[in-house]
Amino acid sequence: MTEYLHFCVGTTGYALPLDRVRTTTRMVAVREKGTVIIYGEEIPIASIGSEIRQVKATDSLIITTLRENEIALIADRIEGIRSEEEASPGNLPGTRIREDGVIIIDDLSLIPLVYGALPPDDEETLDLLRGRAPALSEMRVTDESVDKPEILRFQLGYVEYAVGMQYVREVILTGEITPVPGVPPFITGIAAVRGEIISFIDLRKFFRVPEYGLTDFNRVIILSDGKMTFGLLVDRIRGTSRLKRPLPDATTRTAIPRTHLIGVAGDVVIIDGKALLTDPEMVISDQEREM
User: Fold this and answer.
1) What is the pLDDT of residues 50-60, one digit of tens each?
2) CA dihedral in degrees (140, 143, 144, 147; nearest 10)?
C-alpha cells in the first residue's frame, strides 16, 4: 500500500507519494532569484496555483522531485503520513480525489505551479527566516541510506523532535482516549487501534521536561519493536529526513536524558526509539493499575 505525505495549501488538502518526498522543513529566507538554500543546496521554490505567494514563518517546504529536478513546494502546513486506498479520478490530469476533497497528486508535472515567492513585509519575520538557515545546515539530507537513518520529525509545543522510522508503525489521528486509573502520569490513557488496545504516552511528562507551548495532541505516532507497542501523542508531523552522523554533543541543549537521546540536529531533538520502547517504566503491572 502506497504511503502519502498530506499537506494543505489554503483550505485545500493535498497528498504526494512519500517516495517522491526527499524531506520537509520549515520555511527559510527566500533568495532574490526565487530559490532557497536547504542543507547546503540551492533549490527553486514553487507553489500550487497561478499566483506568487508571500511566505510566512509558519509555512513549510516539501522538497520533492519534478522531472528529475528538485523543487521546494510551499505548504501552509504538513498534515502527516497516511496510506491511501480508494479515490476517484480528479479534475486535473495526474490527480485523484477522495470523498473528503483531498487531492492525491500522482504526477506533479501535470499540476499548475508558479515559481518564486515574495518575502514577508516585516523585518522581524525576515530575521526569523534568515536565522533558521544555520540550524538547518547542520542536518544534511542524502539519498544514501548507509549510516544515514531515516527519521520522522514531529512537534510538541514549541519543540521539534524526531524518532527513527524503523520503529514507526503508523501515524493516526487522535481519537477517543479512555483514561486508566492508577497508571503513571505520562500515560494519558488507552485506545483501540485496529483492534489492539494501545497506551498513549505524553513524552514531556515521561521525560519530566518543561512543557513549553500549548498542545492539542491531534496526531498519534504508533511505535513498535515487535514486543512493545504504544502511541506518542504529538501536535504535528513535520515529515521525514535522513540523518547524517555524527551529531554534535547534545548534553547542554535538551533536558532529555542521554540514555534516551541520539543527539540534536539543528533544533531537532532525536530520541532513541529503541531505548524508549525497552524502558522498564513503559511496562505497567496489574498491581500499579489497581492502586
Assistant:
1) 889 899 988 98
2) 50
